[in-house]
Amino acid sequence: MAYLSLVLKGMAYGLTHLIPGLGGALILILLGIYEQFVDAIGNFFVNRSKWKEYIPFLAALGAGTALSMVIFAKLITLLLERYPSATMFFFMGLVVGTIPTVLRLHEDMRLTAGRGAALVAGLLVVVVLRAMDPRGSQAAQVARISNLGGTIYNAITSFLAGGASVTPGLDGSYIWILAGTYEPIMKAIGAVSGLVVDWATLISTGVGALLGILIFSKLIDEAIRRAPAISYYCVLGIVGGSVYGLWPGGRARSHVLVLLIAFAAGFALALICGNPSQTEFTVAESSQE
To answer: Which of 20, 40, 70, 230 has the most other CB atoms within 10 Å of its CB?
Structure first.
């Protein structure tokens, strides 16, 4: 039963790689396995004495993650193709809805000059990333993803997405959206269920994301433990900037009421996932700033 529970938790974590705004680290916190996950990933190659603990845990979690992504990728792709504006507003609601949860992740979140600078820095990260690959140029980038240049570009952005997936308040899927690779990745994953394999996309995505998770998990965990409030204000800046990054622009042609309902639904889902009784993951035990 313990392994089945981990597989189900892995499926929930897998969904976060498909749905922008539903952060992977946040879900791991909600499920009560964030610290175990970071420990297993960050110390896998340096603490072989715990492999008997790490391997079953990561195998069950990884199986659930892969299964979830294959099962639900087509559904997410379909929503983006048929209802792009409403879907993006739903994602934006998810993003904004994570803000209260991030604010509860540390007991002292008073605004200071240093924390304000961290917030601005996080905001600029998303704005710069959006400026590097505007939505208008995404189609061209998608067309080149199977070429060498596109494969390298996808591996790099997947590396960043993997890092984002282990950062509380962030998720990797909107990194893919901002980079213009989200839709082809979802199509490649969804096609696996029909035994159609896009090796260039899947391998570059998998390798890049795995390296990002391995490297960033330790770095991010250390940063949060040493300077929790500053780290979380940086997260808030990235969350705020992602709303700008996810704005559908010229595609926002749906009825205003539909967009508002979609946004409210995403916001409500994020609030439900961020129930205070389940998200009391703080760094009170860590060193203070």
So the answer is: 20
